[in-house]
Each structure stands twice: as C-alpha cells, then as structure tokens.
Amino acid sequence: MKIRNVALAVLLAGAGAGAFAQAKEQFFPVLTGRTGPVAPNATPWANGHNDYMKLVNARGGINGVRTLTEECETAYDTARGVECYERLKGKHGGATVFQPLSTGITFALTEKIPNDKIPMITSGYGRSDSADGGIFKWNFPLIGHYWVAGDALLKHIGNKAGGMDKLKGKKIGVGYHDSAFGKELLPILQERAAQYGFTLQLLPIAAPGVEQKATWLQVRQQQPDYVILQTWGVMTPTALKEAQAVGYPRERMFGTWWSGAEPDLKDLGQGAKGYSAVMMQHGAEPQSQVVKEILEKVHAKGQGTGPKDEVGSVLYMRGVVGAMLAVEGVRAAQDRFGKGKVVTGEQARWGYENLNLTQAKLDALGFKGVMRPVSTSCVDHMGATAARVHSWDGSKFVWSSDWIEADDQVIRPLVRASAEKYATEKKIVRRSGQDCQS
Amino acid sequence: MFYRENGQFKTSYRADQQIFPITQDRWAVLALIGFAAIGVPLLADDYLKSAILVPFLILSLAALGVNILVGYCGQISLGSGGFMAVGAYAAYNTFVRIDGMPLIVALLSGGFFATLVGIVFGVPSLRVKGLYLAVATLAAQFFCDWAFLRVSWFTNNSSSGSVAVSNLSFLGWGINTPTSKYLFCLGFLVVFALMAKNLVRGAIGREWMAIRDMDVAAAVIGIRPMYAKLTAFAVSSFIVGVAGGLWGFVYLGSWEPAAFSVDRSFQLLFMVIIGGLGSIMGSFFGAGFIVVLPIVLNRFLPALGSLVGVDISTAGISHAETMIFGALIVWFLIVEPHGLARLWSIGKQKMRLWPFPH
Fold first, then answer.
1. Domain ranges of chain A
2. I need a labelling partner for A360 at 20 to 30 A (CA). Which of A119, A236, B137, B313 fits?
3. Would an 8 Å CB–CB cutoff place A221 in contact with chain B?
C-alpha cells in the first residue's frame, strides 16, 4: 500500500516537472505584503498586479507570450524579502523584473541585482536617486519617486496658500515612518524649505506606528500650519485618528502617495474628511476602461485575485499600473530582441530604459484619463513627473487639483548629487554613451 | 555498536581532555566540517546556499554568543539585536571611512566595539538579576535602535538612514557569489565555535557556570562575580557583534536599523532556549530550527495542501507558518525543556550503549 502511494507521488511529481518545459511564459514574481503591518494596503496592490497580468493573457499575451506570476510573502520584512528574491529569481526560466513594494527591500536588492542581471521597478518608492540611470543601471523608479511626491505636494500647498511665496515663515510638520522609506522624503522638503523660507518640524514615527500619542501631542503644542504624512500601512489611519483626537484639522494634512488610500480612510469615514494626498498620476479609477475590461474579462470569469469591490480602488490601480509598466517594458524589449519570444532580464532592462508610452498607446491599453505619457532614457529612469492631488470627502476620493508637474530643474541636480555620492562610495563609474546603446 | 569505545585508552592528560575524546565523534565532526566545506558547495544549489545556509550560519554564530551569556553565565539578555547592530555599524564605519581596510579587520573591529558596548550595558548585571536584567538589556536594544536612527554619523550621513556595502573581498577572492559567501561565513563559524568551546571548557567557563548555578556560593569560594559577568558580556558581545557584521555585509548587503530590532533579540533568545541553554551544539540546533523551519514550512505547505486538494493563499501560508511554528515551540518545550541539545545528548548516550541497555 505504502509503496504504491510513494510510486504514485513520484509519478505525479515527474509528470508535473515535465510539463514546465513546454510553456512559453514570461515570469513576473510578486513580492507581497499580505500579512504584517502593511497588509491592508499591500494586498490590493498585489491583487491589482495579478489581475492585470491575467488580463494581458486574456488579451492574447505579450505578442503571444503568456504572463506567469508567483507570489512570495515578505510581510514588509527586509530579510524575508531577500529570501523571496533568492527563491524566485531563477524560477520558471528566470524572473523578468522585481517589484518589491518596500523601500527597505529595495535598498537590499539594489546591491544584488547588478550581479544577477535582473531589473527592478520601484514605482513611487525605493531610492529617489535611482532615477539617475547613469549610475543605477538596473533600478527603475518609473513615473515617480518620493522627491517628486514631496515637490508636487509642496506646490499644491503653495497653490492653496495663494502662491509659493506665501509659505514664507510657515511651519510644516512632517510625520514620517522612521526608516529609509520615511527619511527618503526629507531631502526635497529641506531643499524647498531653504528656498522658500518655511520651517520643517520633523516628527519621526517608529514602525509599525500604532502608538503615536506622543507625536501628536507635539503637533498640538507646536501647531504647525500644515502636516505632511509619509506613512504606509496602519500608521496612516492611526495618525489620522490621533489628529482627530488632538483636534488638528484634517484639511491641513497632506499625505504622499502611499499615505492616502481607501484602507487608510474607510474606517474613519467623516472623521478624515478634508484629508488630501498626492497621487502618482492615477487615483481611484473605477470608471476607467481598464477596470471595466478587468471586470469583464477576469472577474466575470471567476478568475479575480481578490474581492470584486476593491477593483478600481487606489492601491489596486497602483498594482495595475505597476503590472502595465512591467508588461510594456517587455513589449518594448520584444520589439528589439524578437517579437513573440520570452525576453531575459537583461533584455527587459533595455525595454524599461527605452519605454515610450505615448498617450495614444496608453489610451489603447485602457488608461485614458488615468495616466500621462511616460518616456524613459539612459539617464532618466523615471520617465514622468506628473502628479495630482485628491481629497477624501467622507466616503470617497475627489480630485482637488489639476495635473501638477514636479520641478525637474530642482529635483534632477539633487538626484544626480545623491547618485554621485553613491557611486564614489561604491566605486561605480558612470555609464558611457556606448553602454547606453546596448 | 556504533560507539565501540573498547580499546580507546588515553595515555596522556592532553588526549583525555580533548574536545571529542571518543574517536568516532572526532571523525564524525571532522567529516561534517569537511562535508560542509567541500560537499555542500558542490551539491547545494545557489538558493540553498544564499537564502538558507548563509543566514543559518550567521545566526548560529549569533546564537553561540547569546548562549555563552544566557546559557553558560545565566544572565538573561534581550539586547543581542542591539549588539549585532553595533557590530554591523562599527564594521561599516571602519570599512567605509578607512581606505583599504581589510574585510576581516573591519568585522573584528565591529566585534570589538560591540564588546565595549556590551560591557557598558553589562554593568547593571552586577546589581540586578533575572528578569530585571532582561529589562536592563532591553534598554540596550532600544538605545542602539535610537542611536543608529538619530545619529547620522553612524550611517555616514546617508539621507535615507540606510547603508550599503559592496566589493567585499578576502585575500583577493571576491565574496560575491553564494559559494564564497557560504564559505566565508562557515570559516568564521568554525573558528568561533572552536574558540567558544574551549573557553567554556576552561577556567573562565567554569566560573561562568558557577555564577549561573549559584552566584552567592560562587562568590564565597572566590570567584569574582564582576569579572565573570563582565567577561561573559564581553565575549558574548564580541561574537554577536561579528555575527551582526556578517549579517549586514554578507547576507543583506544593505540594511537599516530595523534589521536589528527587538524582534531579532527575541529570535536569538528563542534559538538559545529551544536549542538548549548552556550547550554549544544547542546554538546550532536552535538556529537551524528557527531559521530553516519557517522557510521549509513556507515551501512545503502549498505542496502539502495541494495533495489534500486545498489551495492556500500566500497570506494563508504565512499565517499557517506562524501558527505551526508557535505550536512546535510549545510542544518542544513541553517534551524537552532543556532543548534540542538535550534530546541529542540522550540519543547519543543511548547510542554509546546500544544494543546493550545498560
């Protein structure tokens, strides 16, 4: 009896192993944060990413090549993220691109990806200086990083105050996650504070951030004119609850793009009314074409990754956008290296470096009104500096600003200086023009 | 039958006092080290080496350090994560600020600074014992957390608070492949394990154990409590500091203070408790249990689930892993409170007599 079961198991395992050889699939690993301190926020991201990958397959794949995803749970912990990276990087023919959704894991993987030749997309997070593609060959903070968020937010605050010069003498409190993620926002704020004459009140919040009474007592004492939040996960609703408790008006609170989504504000409802957050181009887009397509082609067939009512929410859309950028980079790589073929990590890297998503292309993919054109190059791995601000009206988000462009003239030198510092420390030489063509 | 000790007569004190007096043991350990050094790099794939064996080796080293303090000297310490952080950041500063600094010297300097910090935070042990000392060492943990977050000098004034190292090399060999990283950590572990084993077998080790068993009686017979306790803190922090340096340099490559948070301290303490307090071998068992078991569960639960026809989500696997892991800890402590090392010793004792019952 036992021998028969063992033989059966071996046979099944053998059959399973054989099946892998046939599939022509582009492997996209997914590092998820479905448990731990950021679970309510990272879960919709992963669901959106996986749903879009399924949609791509439903549309016929990337010139016929199907997408394959596999998840690995990191719980927002760097060591586990590194283990997930090591586990997935060689599977299913090799990982195409990693999107760690954690600044801590990004820093750790930045050291490993040049050796393993796998690119990393860190849309809206990670190292802000990695926008300098001349030094960071394998990092792609596509469509935005923290300095763009900070600058756009300051512009919006200035606009509301009646002009950037009206900010002179004002006090802006910054509640930030006490880690690399939180601190990454500060350089742009400090730069602008020196330029426009406002002072910053730094309020570090220790992770996971469920205990913030001391921080908000400080806010009540100091009464800053505005408060910017650079928080993620359960830290954001806690901050808003404490703000409500000390009576700080939510209309004067602004979050960066990881600090303003439905999971943060749903439970507070009217209590968070007036809170705004800057968004990396998209917001909650339930009316967009791509959402309608996902509902029709994926959820209607019972293949949705998560619950249907979260489709179109802010973080879900961010996952969709992340997946779209990953896929379009592969498509661009296929245009050069061979349509209909599975691309390697190196070829995908070229694709992400030569991304040219015009408005027409984006509209065709279903992102009309959601995204603006993205165009990357060897020296610019970010590709776009557009942002918008939305506000919570008690039950949903409404746009409270026009399209804002972050000031590249100020940000680019900062990025370059920080990247040069990294390069001298690591003894990396800036990429030559020839290397950019490859 | 396996341990036929007939005919193994020792003719000198030196032979009688060696670490592995039984010939079979000696050969087995040498074979194990040989296999670890030669066989594993050839047989194991890159994932096994870089994601399972390297963390296992580094955390075994850290558990070794903690075991010396908690297991042999009886001073409960919840500050091990903080000492690892001191080792990592001190090694980083030595490596980055001084041009041409060899890697080994940087790591040992990390251990040295961790020793200094360990001695400073070990001073409360002269006054308080047990759980109160645990709280005092917890202060060490939080102090280190605060220092590396706030004092930007330690992170070389990096704006993000995150530091990174690369281009590691030892005597001309680069430490950048899984095999080289594995062998580098293995070298450190073997050297330190030998050093630790000899320390605990010697006079100082006996002093530590006397303090652990009954510190008043130890003081009465002439063992200086201050000397014994502070040397325990010093040696333990040195080893833990070097382990911290290895963790940051070799495993993570780039880290922030959260990598050495209080969770790390608890993890090390649990390794030592589960593995066996007061046992060098116990550190390895404990590290193996706590490092490798969650990963094994994570990888085999989906397979197990699919055999029964149940499809578990990634979040479900993560939760199940935590639950099963917790249940196993409770079960082990009920079955054998002295830890896995005790189970191993009992097994070995029986093996020495088998097939004879007594």
1. 24-145+284-385+417-437, 147-283+388-409
2. A119
3. no
pLDDT band at A5 (very low <50, low <70, confident <90, very high): low
Residue of A nearest to B97 (CA): A425
A34 and chain B in contact, CB less than 8 A: yes
pLDDT for A22 equals 45
Q: Which helix (H) or strand (E) holds B164?
A: strand B163-164
CATH number among 1.20.1070.10, 3.40.50.300, 3.40.50.720, 3.40.50.2300, domain A24-145+284-385+417-437: 3.40.50.2300
**Average pLDDT, stretch B264-293?**
93
Superfamily holding A147-283+388-409: Response regulator (3.40.50.2300)
Q: What is the pLDDT of residue A15?
A: 45
Per residue in A402-411, pLDDT (tens digit) is: 999 999 899 9
* CB contacts, 8 Å: B159 with chain A: 183-184, 186-187, 418
Q: Categorize the per-residue pLDDT at A427 as very low, low, confident or very high, splitting at 50, 70 and 90.
A: confident
- Rounded to whole angstroms, how far apart are CA atoms A415 and A133? 10
Report yes or no: A86 at the B interface, CB cutoff 8 Å. yes
Give SS3 for B301. helix
Neighbours of B209 (CB within 10 A): 17
Question: Which residue type is seen at A320?
Answer: V
- Closest CB to A32: pick one of B51, B259, B314: B314
* 3-state DSSP assignment of residue B42: helix
Alpha carbon dihedral B49, B54, B56, B60, in 10-degree steps, equals: 140
- Poorest-confidence range of A22-31, A200-209, A285-294, A296-305? A22-31
Domains of chain B: 45-353 (1.10.3470)
Interface test with B, best of A47, A71, A82, A125 (most B CBs within 10 A): A82
CB contact under 8 A, A110 and B254: yes
The pLDDT of residue B298 is: 83
Give the whole-angstrom CA distance, residue B215 versus residue B202.
Answer: 18
Residue A344 corresponds to which tokens in the numbers above? Answer: 């390697």
What is the Rg, in whole angstroms, of the alpha carbon atoms belonging to chain B?
21
How far off is chain A from B17, nearest CA to CA, in Å? 41
**How many other C-beta atoms lie within 10 A of the C-beta of residue A214?**
11
Q: What is the mean pLDDT of residues A108-117?
A: 91
CB burial of residue A51 (10 Å; 0-12, 13-18, 19+)? buried
The answer for residues whose C-beta is within 8 angstroms of residue B42's C-beta and 6 or more apart is none
Q: Contact A200/A230 with Cβ under 8 angstroms? A: no
